[in-house]
Amino acid sequence: MFSFFKKKKSIISTDKIWRSAEKKARGLGVDIDAIIAADQTVFLFYYFEDSKKWIEALLKAKKIDFEDLDRANRGTKVILVPAAEINSSGRLVDALKNFSDPNSSQFLFPNHYPTHDFETEILEKLIDLHDSVIGCCFYIAMDDPLMRVFGSERIVTIMDRMGYKENEVIQHSMITKSISNAQKKIDKNVPNALRANSQEEWFKVNLPDGT
Fold this sequence. Notes:
The protein is of the alpha/beta class and 211 residues long. It is 44% helix and 20% strand. Strands 1-2-7-6-3-5-4 form a seven-stranded mixed β-sheet, with helices on both faces. Helix 4 (116-127) links the parallel strand 6 and strand 7 (133-141).
């Protein structure tokens, strides 16, 4: 868990990790159902178009209504947000501020962005939305491209030794720290990243030989 502080505002970031993308999708779906049942609004932030399609397919399969941020209204319970555009679009930030309430909203990220600095900028934008603590949750699978960069097989071995079950979600500071360190390492190796439509493509065009 990491907190990013700016004046009296802060955002608390947590990671939920599953062994596979399939298990991650199931876990994310369960959490979305619970948030809606609690009469709260879900904001789903995506970095890549491929991620958006993955989220849309999940929501459609569960028959959950959703809207893009620029089409949402105050009655919309699940809102999709293009996270990578927040830094360059004041319009998106204004819409996010208008429709989100830290007391009745949940900010979910189905993936991490590969670089630490860029993701931190996004989180700092969220800090500016409200004069209160904001929580966000990242959903990760061990077979995500970012996780494979720093050897997720080793983490899985450690998980097995600690007794984690196949369908069990993991929240552990060691893994969160490993993700952050991997992102910082990528920052050093990719000073000017090229844009991509998926996390997989991002690594192919920006780190074709690995880190």
